[in-house]
Amino acid sequence: METKKRSIAKAVSWRVLASLTTFIISWAITGSLVLGLGIASIEFWAKLILYYGHERLWNAVDWGSK
């Protein structure tokens, strides 16, 4: 079982990496630094919350655990 703090740390570290990727792609497609940052910041918070919930749900499932 993982602690809630570990799940939060994993969620934040993943979101930083994934949101940086989203920012770069958004900036490249739109050509706008501001729009790229806006898209990445909305995506960061939405997916951070979803990932944390996903991790906690999987932590409650015994399937595949040893």
Summing up helix and strand content along with how strands pair, one would put the structural category as mainly alpha
Low-confidence stretches: none
User: What's the total helix number?
Assistant: 2
What's the structural domain tally? 1
The biggest beta sheet is recorded as: none
C-alpha geometry = elongated
Q: Give the termini separation.
A: 11 Å
Percent of sequence in beta strands: under 5%
User: Tally of extended strands?
Assistant: 0
Order of helices and strands: HH
Q: Indicate the mean pLDDT.
A: 90
**Helix fraction bin:** over 70%
Write up this protein:
With 66 residues, this protein is mainly alpha-helical. It has one domain (4-59). The protein has 2 helices and no strands. The chain has helices at 4-30, 33-59. The relative contact order is 0.17.
What are the main properties of this structure?
single chain, 66 residues, mainly alpha
Please specify the SSE layout and strand pairing.
Layout: H1 4-30, H2 33-59
Helix pairs in contact: 1-2
